[in-house]
Amino acid sequence: MNKFYVSINGNDNNTGSVNNPFRTIEKAQEKARECSNATVYVLEGVYNSFPVLSEKDNGTSYIGVNATLSGGMEIDYENTLEVPEKIKDRLKAEVKNKVRAIGIDALGIDIDAFGEIYPIGAYHTAQKYDNAKLGTNFEVFSGGRRMRIARYPDEGFLKIDEVFDVGDVAEFPDQNYWHGWAERRNHRGGCYIIDRETNYRVQTWKNLENIWIFGYFKHDWADSSAPVKFDTKNRAVYPEHVARFGCKKGADYYFYNILEELDAPGEYFLDKENKMLYIYPYSEGDKIEFSLNENPIVEILGGENITIEGFTIKCARNSGIKVRGNGCTIKNNLVKNVSDHGIVIDGYRNTVENNEVTRTGKGGIYLYGGDRITLTPSENKAVNNYIHHYSEVYKTYQPGVQMSGVGSICTHNEICFCPHEAIQYDGNDHLIEYNNIHDAVLYSADAGAIYTGRDWAGYGTVIRYNIIRDIGNEELRPDAIYWDDAHSGQTAYGNIIINAKKYGFQIGGGRDNTAINNIIIGETDVPLRFDCRAYEGFFEDGWYREAVNTPDGEQWRILNRVPYRSEIWAKKYPSLAALSDDFNNTDDINFPVYPAGNVVENNIVVNSRAFLGEIMEASMKYSSVKNNKAYKSVEDIGFDMNTLKFEVQPEDFPEIPVDKIGRIEE
């Protein structure tokens, strides 16, 4: 027998058959390990534990049949309590009877373990302070939707009025890097001035302790948070942790962890002193859930050929699924409401297929694997997944799909409704194809829907036959495809870009990049942009100088991490192996700061200005930029915006297989 069944109405003393199922998945695992290629069917219900899988489980399939794996606890609305009068007195009159209370202690939840406020944001600096605590925040869900700690304002951002002191920052002014910053600790946080109206609001808060600030203090790709102190006499706010890049007038921010601001649906406040949770549900009657499990819900450590299929996975203060193994399959699952990433893969030949990932605190699907020394591909795949409304807590650098290492594949996915990147990658030889990306990078300007950067040796990735549509918003205008900071060796063809706000293609001064046969439609500021930042930094004292001007500059350090002149690398990337590091012969075109060997040809651009883009002089000189054509309307080229096809295919432009792009309906 190699089939076992688990039911919430079962018993671990049963045989595990369909008519006599086990009660726990752990018991089924025990029996499955006694035979080869076993299948465990987990029947309808909510299960609060799932065993860690290892090489002892090789070849086993775990199939959910309307089963939910939850790392949380659920409370019915009817079991919530009236808010104590002393707390009601601190709430606004219109919400006093809408806010409910839950006794944390009575639920057996350790308030000391779950009651801390931990920093959030990709660029927070708490790790540099001796008294700071790092961790994952306690999370609360109302009706299946993530709630937020009570904040002001309820939506959107305030604006920093003035900056009195940027603090002990890593960079100030722009491109002036404070050497030694990385080695120092306990940096001075600085002092920001808030507007008068906000200052009056702060004065109405009874307790100004343990209030936090979150914001994009200098760059819209660098979110961070910190506890603050107030001097309301002078409208001054003192962040206890410095914003890494400083702060600017007009920067976006909000305050949070404020009981008096518990005034909007979807907010909560954790009262550690009284061991109570106060909530304002999205809707009266909502079930309330807490994330308690600090480990992934499903974890495979060292296993091979294990399948996880058909589960709803939710409520972890971690990632939903983590795999460190080979040949595993993760398919047809719904992963939601987890603090970190949806699905994380590390190994070889793993497949993540036809899953839905949503409402994560960080990113979607992460693929790690392959060997950059030998250029051995991982062959990990993210196929036909629906990844949407993610990165709800950490707002930047938490992509829908991340590929790191060598030879991962991202194909036929739909990725949408995210504040920052859809796809980010690093390493070599990845394939990004047939993806439908839309409504992405909704809160950033200096970012790309598909992004990589700063590696002269990052050769081999191909981006083809993707639709990238409606990127950014009217205020924040990002890019569709962004090869940042001299990233090199990329290829993109057959992509359709529609309504990217700033750049359709941003080629940031690298080498041996190819962008051919792409279509860019819409009022994009600069459809094709090809700069020469490394060249300008080295020869003209441009802003990128510190990364390239000396052998210990960051770009050189990254290059020297890989054996790019080894036999394996030289055979695959001969032009990369030919690079010169001779600072005494910088006239050599193989000196890597030259934007050489690029091919930007035969792209079609459509906008009301018939504007093709901006190609820097050095980029034109050292690369091939030709046969790119600009038109004022799609009618001029007979292009149908409904089908995304030409009425008559141009002879000099290869057909794009539009019908194959996006998720494949089963």
Keywords, separated by commas or semicolons:
666 residues; eleven-stranded parallel beta sheet; 25-stranded parallel beta sheet; 10 helices; mainly beta
Account of the protein in words:
With 666 residues, the protein is mainly β. The protein contains ten helices and 54 strands. The protein has a 25-stranded parallel beta sheet that branches. Strands 21-23-26-29-32-35-38-41-44-47-50 form an eleven-stranded parallel beta sheet. Strands 10, 11, 12, 13, 14, 15, 16 and 17 form an eight-stranded antiparallel beta sheet that branches. Strand 15 and strand 16 form a beta hairpin. The chain is globular and about 75 Å long.
Q: How many DSSP helices?
A: 10
Q: Which runs of at least 5 residues are low in confidence (pLDDT < 50)?
A: none
Radius of gyration: 27 Å
What characterizes the major β-sheet? 25 strands, parallel
- Spatial separation of the terminal alpha carbons: 31 Å
The mean pLDDT is 96
Helix content: under 10%
Which structural class do you get from the secondary structure elements? mainly beta
Report the strand count. Answer: 54
Overall geometry = globular
- Beta-strand proportion: 25-35%
